[in-house]
Amino acid sequence: DHGYEECKRDFEQWTKFVGYLGVVAMDDVGVYPGPTEFFKEVRANPEYVWLEHKLNVDYFRKVTGWNGEK
Question: 69: pLDDT confidence band, cut at 50, 70 and 90?
Answer without folding.
Answer: low
